[in-house]
Amino acid sequence: MSFKKCGNFCERKQYINHQVNISIKECQMKVKYKKQIKTKNTLWDKTYDVTSIVINIANFAIDLYILIEFYEKKRLIFYYLSLTITLTAQLAYCVIFLRRYCMSLNTIRRIKWFIGILPFSWMIPFVFYLAANRRSRLALFMDLFDLDIFHCPFILPAAYMKKKFEKIVEKFVLLLKQYLKVCIFVFFFLLDCNCNYKYMYIAIPQSILQIVAMIIYNEINTAYLISIFVSVANVACKWLILPFGNDIYTYIWSWLCFVTDLVGILFVLSLVFHSPIVNGDTYNLMATIFYYKIYIAVLPLIAYAIVICFLSVFIYPTWKIFIHDTYNHHLRWSIPCFLIFLIIASLFASMAVIYFGIMFIYIHILFYYQFIYYFSYLLKKKNKIEGKKTKDKQTDNETLQKLLSFLQEGPDVDLRMACANHVFGFATIYLNEEFETLYNRVTLKTLRQARQSSLIRS
């Protein structure tokens, strides 16, 4: 019996050692895979940064060359317009620098910094990029001049937020409020560090100005063409980090839509300023390209977008809010309200067919959701007055939660992301009001409980 027990013990020990070795190998493989992924991501990030910097320098150099050429050829109108665009961009860079790093300084020192950095304003985007790492030499050098390298106008680091964190106890308010601030901060941080303001102030206006100059003076200049292509590449490169999507296909689709819209704008401007002779070769060629583009690329997408817009933006949220709502589920006139809103949605959808455009649909979504929210809010108040309260305490946050759940459950991604900014903006207003009333309800007991729960989670 003792030999048998010893044999069983040895087998179990070998089995346990074998399982431990397998788990160790799996952990090593996971660590190795994560390192490979991290190395690959770092390589792509560096490649993108270097490409963006090279395109920015090339774009600025070509625009400066064209500005000098406008002056030498006595094209003073285009010279002053190009100079105004360039100076506007440089002033914008200086203002962003002051807002980012000089918020704690007094007015006189801000004016001195503004005057001092104005001649070097074209280098400010690279300062944003290099100072993004708080431990870099440039960031430490800027800290010697009392610049706020840890300051951001949208969110403060943990050292500054410690006292405010101690006053906030409610978990949902804390998490969602900080999440919204982080989202806003990350978005504007990408704009600052990756020079994305450049395509708004320089790239697109300069491209339009150069196209107009080529058409008016009937001169095909190589520098103009290179500048236009570099500007389009600059915009496309910067827009790579801004599209939203739950998957890679939606991400690529949003990016291609933006780039093709930009090229389409330049094409339409060329057609308008060129004004080709009717029934001429250029006119017939452009008309043929335009009509083929409509039949192949525009009309099928319009039909698809209208169907998806009608199903996901109007029918789905209206049905969910007015029929499956917890606080007006027992109202007898919920179905008539649903039918009325369905008719209104159909009318707006027909208007979208006639005046199709992304901005129109976006504005329509905002007004439609705002109207649904206030109407459902009135229904909830009416339901409370009549004594038809549910078991759980109803709050003003229920409709917001339904809209946020629609952003996750709706079938179309682009249309959901279009209204996300509006919903988050409304959420910040609501949470700020909750924060003011929450401060008066905080006690030492709740602070101790919050501290214990945070330690357990950590």
From TrEMBL:
UniProt entry keywords in alphabetical sequence: Membrane, Transmembrane, Transmembrane helix
TM region(s), chain numbering: 50-68, 77-99, 111-131, 138-160, 172-191, 223-241, 253-274, 294-316, 337-355, 361-379
Keyword Nucleotide-binding: no
Keyword flag Transmembrane: yes
Protein name as it appears in the record: Transmembrane protein
Organism encoding this protein: Reticulomyxa filosa
Upper lineage: Eukaryota, Sar, Rhizaria, Retaria, Foraminifera
